[in-house]
C-alpha cells in the first residue's frame, strides 16, 4: 500500500529525515514511533503531499506519490497534530465545510458528515460549537475531517496526544473500527505503549532514520530482547528453579516466596512452550505471565544508543 525508499529532507543544514525506508501493507495499523523531533511529522507531511522531499521515493498503491500529489490526495486522509481554532462553527458545519472542498454538497454532505460523526462517537455533538468540545472530542472531529473524502490511507499525527486514558481508549477503538472497514492507517506517537497493542506493525524512528520495524514480537526477538517471566508455583519451587536454570532462554532467576522472576528471551510460542514443559515436568504452576512494558525499555535503549551514536 505504501512504500518509502531512501527518503531525505533537510531544513537548511539540518537533516530531519535521513534515507528513511518503510513498507506498509494494506489493512495495517502501522505505529510510527519516535522521540520528539525524530522526523515523524516531516515524513507524514511528505507522504500526504504537504511538503516536498529533497530526495527519495514514495509509492502509494504503486503510484509515485511525489510526482502525483494531486491524484493521491484523494486516497490519503491526513490528520495533523495541531488543531486550529474555529469560532462560531458547529461540529456538523465544520465537517460540511471540509466536505465542500471535496465537492460533496447538499444532502449528500449532510449524510456523509452525520455518518462520520457517528463513526467517531460525536453524534450527540452535531450542533455543539467546535470550540466548546473537549480536547479528545476535537481530536475525534479532526479524525472525521480526515475521513470526509473516504480515503484508503489514513495518516494520523499523534491523534491521542494530550488525551486522558478514557479518550485514548476511545480513539484506539475507533482506529480498530477503521481498520475493520478496510482502511490502512499510519499513526504516530512518541509514547510506544500507547500504540503497541493496536498496531499490526511498528517502526521506531530516531534522528530521521528508521532504526527498526516489524511486529512487536519480531522486534523484541530480533533485538534479542528479554521480557521478565513471573511464575508462581504451589510447591516444588526448587525443582522449578533447577528446571529453569537449564533453559537457554532463561536467565537472572530470582525467587521470593513462591514467586519466581526470570528474564526470558523469545517469542510468544516459546513462552507457551516453556509453560507446557513446566507442567509436563509435574511442577504445580499457579500463575504464569510475561510482563508487558518492556517494549518501553527497548524503545528507550534504541533511541538512547542512537542519540549517543549520533552527532
Ligand atoms: N519548518 C522547519 N524548519 C526548521 N526545522 C524544522 C522545521 N520543521 C521541523 N523541523 C525540525 O526537524 C526535526 C524533525 O521534526 P518533526 O516535526 O518531523 O519531528 P517529530 O518526530 O514529528 O517530532 P514531534 O514528536 O515533536 O512532533 C526537529 O528537530 C524539528 O525541530
From TrEMBL:
The protein's matches in SMART domains, at most eight in alphabetical order, are given as:
AAA (SM00382)
Q: Which family does it belong to?
A: Belongs to the ABC transporter superfamily.
Report the InterPro entries cross-referenced here: AAA+_ATPase, ABC_transporter-like_ATP-bd, P-loop_NTPase
Q: Which PROSITE patterns match?
A: ABC_TRANSPORTER_2
Question: Which residue numbers delimit the ABC transporter domain?
Answer: 2-232
Please state what the protein is called: ABC-2 type transport system ATP-binding protein
The protein's matches in Gene3D superfamilies, at most eight in alphabetical order, are given as:
P-loop containing nucleotide triphosphate hydrolases
| Source organism per UniProt | Natranaerovirga hydrolytica
Named from the GO MF annotations, one term is: ATP hydrolysis activity
Keywords per UniProt = ATP-binding, Nucleotide-binding, Transport
Q: Which residues form a coiled coil?
A: none
Which Pfam families does UniProt cross-reference here?
A: ABC_tran
Q: Which domain of life is it from?
A: Bacteria
The taxonomy runs: Bacteria, Bacillati, Bacillota, Clostridia, Lachnospirales
Amino acid at each position: 500500500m505504501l512504500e518509502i525508499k531512501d527518503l531525505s529532507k533537510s531544513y537548511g543544514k539540518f537533516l530531519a529525515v535521513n534515507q528513511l525506508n518503510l513498507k506498509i501493507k494494506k489493512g495495517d495499523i502501522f505505529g510510527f514511533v519516535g522521540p520528539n523531533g525524530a522526523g515523524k511529522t516531516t515524513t507524514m507531511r511528505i507522504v500526504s503531499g504537504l511538503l516536498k522531499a529533497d530526495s527519495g521515493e514514495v509509492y502509494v498503491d504503486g503510484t509515485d506519490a511525489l510526482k502525483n500529489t494531486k491524484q493521491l490526495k484523494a486516497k490519503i486522509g491526513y490528520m495533523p497534530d495541531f488543531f486550529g481554532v474555529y469560532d462560531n462553527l458547529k461540529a456538523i458545519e465544520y465537517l460540511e465545510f471540509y466536505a465542500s472542498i471535496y465537492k460533496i454538497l447538499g444532502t449528500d454532505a449532510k449524510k456523509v458528515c452525520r455518518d462520520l460523526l457517528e463513526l467517531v462517537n460525536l453524534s450527540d455533538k452535531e450542533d455543539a460549537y467546535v470550540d466548546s468540545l473537549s480536547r479528545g472530542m476535537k481530536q475525534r472531529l479532526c479524525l472525521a475531517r480526515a475521513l470526509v473524502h473516504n480515503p484508503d490511507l489514513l495518516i494520523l499525527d499523534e491523534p491521542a496526544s494530550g488525551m486522558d486514558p478514557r479518550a485514548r481508549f476511545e480513539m484506539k477503538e475507533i482506529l480498530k473500527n477503521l481498520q475493520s472497514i478496510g482502511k490502512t492507517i499510519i499513526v504516530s506517537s512518541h509514547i510506544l505503549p500507547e500504540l503497541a497493542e493496536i498496531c499490526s506493525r511498528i517502526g521506531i524512528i530516531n534522528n530521521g532514520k528508521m532504526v527498526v520495524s516489524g511486529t512487536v514480537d519480531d522486534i523484541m526477538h530480533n533485538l534479542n530482547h528479554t521480557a521478565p517471566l513471573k511464575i508462581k508455583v504451589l510447591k516444588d519451587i526448587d525443582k522449578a528453579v533447577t528446571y529453569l536454570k537449564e533453559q537457554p532462554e532463561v536467565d537472572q532467576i530470582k525467587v521470593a516466596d513462591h514467586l519466581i522472576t526470570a528474564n526470558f528471551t523469545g517469542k510468544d510460542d516459546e513462552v507457551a512452550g516453556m509453560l507446557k514443559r513446566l507442567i509436563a515436568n509435574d511442577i504445580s504452576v499457579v500463575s504464569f505471565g510475561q510482563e508487558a512494558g518492556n517494549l518501553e525499555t527497548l524503545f528507550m535503549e534504541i533511541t538512547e544508543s542512537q542519540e549517543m551514536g549520533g552527532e
